[in-house]
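Customer escalation, tier 2.

The customer says the design service returned an amino acid string that "doesn't look like it belongs to this structure." They asked us to rerun it and document both sides in this ticket. The original structure tokens are below, unchanged.
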């Protein structure tokens, strides 16, 4: 079989679910790209998206990633697209909240700054850890502390790297664009808080996946035991 035929056969065997997610995200992204509030900042925010999409395509081609991991990954990208459209410090989530529930979320929680960037940093850890964890399973097939811990460390290292990229971009571009992309909103501890929230999200996701995994394993064991009991009864009657 030729390499072209092998590639076509492999693509036909792949789950189309990530392609549907990508199509939905691409439509959403194009809609938000038409008239962003600050085009230059939008371009900077999307550099990593442009880099991530080919990588995600390669991961899909290799296979072995669950629908949960794909769904959470594209959900994070959708939240990021909203932040890039408005600029993170100007996303009007509080106005949306007031329109839905009739009161200010920021005022009720005592927030003095726009918290959307903090929310997305938390989601970075929470929503991307399933994908990272499943990729790590290929290196650590046996359930172990390392297989649980390394994905959390990777999320934390990525969060720190992103803060360095923000600082570098602010130094290079300077002025309004640099400050908009940096998005500290006057908080001198902004980078540390962002990294902490990414770590918190990753830890929470790791705990949830562990609990869900144990529950699924216990359910599978009970069903297997029940099935064996039925087979044993059928043989004794026979």
């Amino acid at each position: 079989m030729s390499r072209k035929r092998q590639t076509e056969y492999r693509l036909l065997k792949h789950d189309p679910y990530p392609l549907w997610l990508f199509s939905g995200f691409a439509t959403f992204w194009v809609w938000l790209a038409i008239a962003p509030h600050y085009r230059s900042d939008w371009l900077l925010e999307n550099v990593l998206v442009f880099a991530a999409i080919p990588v995600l395509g390669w991961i899909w081609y290799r296979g072995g990633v669950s629908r949960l991991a794909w769904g959470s990954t594209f959900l994070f990208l959708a939240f990021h697209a909203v932040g890039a459209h408005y600029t993170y410090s100007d996303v009007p989530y509080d106005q949306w909240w007031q329109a839905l529930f009739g009161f200010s979320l920021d005022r009720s929680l005592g927030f003095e700054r726009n918290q959307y960037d903090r929310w997305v940093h938390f989601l970075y850890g929470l929503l991307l850890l399933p994908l990272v964890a499943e990729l790590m399973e290929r290196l650590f097939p046996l359930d172990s502390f390392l297989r649980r811990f390394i994905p959390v460390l990777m999320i934390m290292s990525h969060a720190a790297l992103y803060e360095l990229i923000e600082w570098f971009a602010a130094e290079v571009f300077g002025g309004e664009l640099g400050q908009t992309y940096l998005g500290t909103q006057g908080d001198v501890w902004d980078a540390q808080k962002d990294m902490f929230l990414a770590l918190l999200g990753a830890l929470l996701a790791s705990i949830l996946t562990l609990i869900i995994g144990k529950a699924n394993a216990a359910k599978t064991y009970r069903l297997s035991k029940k099935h064996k009991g039925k087979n044993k009864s059928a043989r004794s009657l026979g």
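Tier 2 assessment: The sequence is consistent with the input. The radius of gyration is 22 Å. The CA atoms of residues 15 and 63 lie 8 Å apart. Sent an explanation to the customer and offered a walkthrough call.
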